Amino acid sequence: MAEALINLLLEQLVTVAFDHTKEAVTLVSNAKTEVKKFSSNLQAIQAVLEDAEKQQVEKASVKIWLDQLNDVSYEMVDVLDEWNTEILKQKAKGVPTEKKKTFKKDVEEEVDDWDKSITILCKMHDIVHDFMQFLNKNECFTMEAKEANTRMMVISEEVRHLSLMYAPYSSPLLDFIPLVNCKKLRTLATFDSSMSSIDIKAISQLKCLRTLNLSDNGIQELPEEIGELIHLRYLDLSENDGLEKLAHSLGNLYNLQTLRLTGCWGIRALPENMGNLINLRHLHTKRCDSLEYLPSGIGRLTSLQTLNTCPVNHDSGPSEGLKLGDLGSLDQLQGSLFIKIQGNLKDATSEAQKARLWNKKLCILVLQFPTLDKQSHVQVLEALRPHQDLQTLLIGYYGGTTAPSWMISLQNLRSLSLHAWDGCEFLPPLGKLPFLEKLLVFGMEKVKTVGDEFLGITDTQTSSSSSSVLFPKLKKLRFEEMGEWEQWEGVGGRTESSGAEISIMPCLVSFKIRDCPKLMNLPLFLQNTPVRKIRISGYRRSIITPVWPENCDVNIYRALEDPETPNSTERVETEILIDSQGYEEMWQELPSNFLISNATSSLALECMWTQQSAGSHL
């Protein structure tokens, strides 16, 4: 553990120095030579610390030396950060030649000072100590603020990482931190707290912070002084639902790599100068429901890997807002991406092509077209072809009449949701997807029949004697709110005459049908699946079902909604109508938890059934 932390510190120094010295050769004379010296001294520090940990000798003089060494190391990081920040700032804004020369001289002097300080310290070969033990005892501190008397607790000047717990609501940050001793803090995190504000004085005193976690508080405003924390790498403001805007100075945090805003549903816009954060890797904006657009500068953040949501609003958003095509330069994007396209998009197809989604290694993609002109839907969706390794896809509010051609080519797709496709009359041939495990079809109001096209069966397949497997990995299947759906035809009986062997859904575990009031039958192939859980609810007509396996858990509910009485929406457990001639035989096979009531020409069984209902009509 000690070695890991030591390596982390030293490798960070070397990485920052090398990465940005290469880019700043024009800024620093003899940069390569100086950085080689710097690297050599860092290796000497690492060797001494490893020796100290092995021998584990405790001396007062050793502790003093390690204090000095530790302080110098942190100071080196701070200076490197300032160097790094200046380089990033010049990249983002551009700096006149005169200022570049001044900066060059400053950096030369700083590198020389580092070299002298480290050389003196590293000549002390007889110094040994358990550096890890020292680090744990002195640098990390947790403070609980449950009681009033915990305020202004004494904190050692050596503390670098502070956790504040149980800070009450309406108490500013300053009340709990003795700022005189906290100027060297690298990490400040609050847990189980509900602070409502951030004191400006606290921010101005914590300029060495790398990590600031103020998530799940009651913060309503982010002060402009936040921009003074130039070393900040990680800022977490998640779950502050009263926060409506971010400070403009946030754009000055050139070293920021992660900004978490998850659950900040009051935020309507991000600072327009977000494009300055060219070091940003992760921008988390899940559940920022009020966020209507993103600033166009985000398209310049070529290191960005995480962008959870991307609202593209071409009507109410500003002209400088992020356009769909601006995503094209963000080739490092990965993980999940939610694109919500609103308004009348000019040159819609061209913008979608520029987004180059096929070149981004996304695992999860959500596309929604709630207000986009429906005439553009087909072309836009066709142009938004994702990466071939996509695993989860949700497409909502699509008004086109056909599915995109690339959908059935997603060979690694595991989960698919088609939500409110109000223009399609037929389902796409999803049975061809080899690894699809979960499928939800929701709100496709024009679909009346689900047949061979859904399974992906072709005339060639049914006329040949070769075997095939359709939906080979599907485990969960759901159909919901398909108001016009009447028939589920399965394979249409063609395989019996063709001799072809077709296996359908051999891995199916559960399926659910909800609010499909006109559906009259379920396909026979379902009885050959290993399905274990069935849920059917919200229908009006009788449904013909196959024979279910004996160990199948089945819950079926029927809506008492009469077509002539639209206000009656109560649901009850389904009535399974059994022909009275088969009453005695069926009675013997029913489980004990059935509730029986008599009917004139049939037996009404109100049930939550867990076994088969052979030959039943629903």
From TrEMBL:
Molecular function per GO: nucleotide binding
Keywords of the record: Leucine-rich repeat, Nucleotide-binding, Plant defense, Repeat
GO annotation terms (biological process): defense response
Disease resistance R13L4/SHOC-2-like LRR domain location: 184-480
SUPFAM superfamilies with a match to the protein in the record: L domain-like
Positions of the Disease resistance N-terminal domain: 11-97
Positions of transmembrane segments: none
Entry keyword annotation includes Magnesium: no
UniProt-recorded name of the protein: Putative leucine-rich repeat domain, L domain-containing protein
Species assigned in the record: Rosa chinensis (China rose)
